Amino acid sequence: MDVLINLFVNGVSTGMLIFLLASGLSLIFGLMSVLNFAHGGLFAWGAFTGVWLFNMTGSYLLALIGAVAMGMFLGFILERFLIRPVYGNHVRQLLVTLGGMLVLSECIKIFWGPNPIAAKLPLWLQGSFTFGGVILIKYRLFVILVGILIYIALLLLLKKTKIGLMIRAGVMDKEMVQALGINVKAIFSFVFLLGAGMAALGGFLLAPYSGVIFAEMGMQYAILAFIVVIIGGLGSVQGSALASLIVGLAGAFTAYYVPDLSLAINMLMLLFFLIVKPTGLVGEKG
C-alpha cells in the first residue's frame, strides 16, 4: 500500500508539472493556432533563472517571482518579434519556434555554461513526514498544491473575468471576436505571456524535483506537453489538467511495474486517443 500511495503522489506531482507547461500551450494553440516549440525553452529558462536567483539570494519567493518574470519577458520577445509576423503560416511557425527553442537553449549555455547545475530546496521544503504510516515527501506535495492553485486560478480567470470570456470566445471562433471589434492581438499577447509565465514556473518547480537542470531539458517536457494538449483537447484547461494527470500517473506506475514500457507509454496513449477520440478528452475543438 505504501508503494501505491507514493507512486500515486509521484504521478500526480509530475502531472502538475506537465500541466503548468501544457495548459498555457493548449490555450496558445487553441486561440492563436500557434504550434510553439519554443515553449520548452521558456520552461528551461524558468528553471535556470530560478535556481540562479535562489543560489544568489537564498530567497525561494524571489527566485519564483524572478523565474516567472523572466519567462514572461522572453515570451513577450518571442510573440512580438518572432511569432507575430508568421501568424497563419504553420510551416513558418514551426521553423521559427524550433529556431527559438535552439536559441534559448544555446543562450542558457552562454550564461550558465554547458554543464548541468544542481538545484537545491529551501530548508522548509526538504525532507518528508509520515502520515497514516506512509512516508510522504514534502516537496512533491508542495508541487501538487501549487498545481491545484494554478488550476483554480486559471478557471476563475477564464470563467469569471471579462478577458477570460474573450479568450474562451476566441478559442471557439476568432472571426466572431474580431467582428465584435475586440482587439484580438492584445488577447493573443496576454495569452502568450500567461502561457510563458506558467511554463517558466513549471521549469522552476521541476528543478529541485529532478535535482539537476540542463540546457536541453525543455525539449523533453515540451514533447510531453504536446502529447497532453492533444489528449486533453485544444484550448481546454480542464482537458490539460486531466490529460496531465493521466500522463503523470501512467508514467509513474509504468516505470515501477513495467520499466521496459516507460519510454513508449506516452506514445501509445497518444496513438490510442488519436484513434478513439481525436478531438481530445474535453471539448469538441480538435
From TrEMBL:
Q: Which GO molecular function annotations are given, in alphabetical order?
A: transmembrane transporter activity
> Which Pfam families would you find in this protein's record?
BPD_transp_2
Q: How does it sit in the membrane?
A: Multi-pass membrane protein
Principal localization reads membrane
Q: Which InterPro entries match?
A: ABC_transp_permease, BCAA_transport_permease
Q: Which domain of life is it from?
A: Bacteria
Q: Which GO BP terms, alphabetically?
A: amino acid transport
List the keywords (alphabetical). Answer: Amino-acid transport, Cell membrane, Membrane, Transmembrane, Transmembrane helix, Transport
Chain segments annotated as transmembrane: 12-30, 60-82, 94-112, 132-158, 179-206, 212-234, 241-258, 264-283
Q: What's an example GO cellular component term for this entry?
A: plasma membrane
Q: Which PANTHER family match?
A: ABC TRANSPORTER ATP-BINDING PROTEIN, BRANCHED-CHAIN AMINO ACID TRANSPORT SYSTEM PERMEASE PROTEIN LIVH
Indicate what this protein is called per its UniProt record. Answer: Branched-chain amino acid ABC transporter permease
Q: Which organism is it from?
A: Bacillus cereus HuA4-10
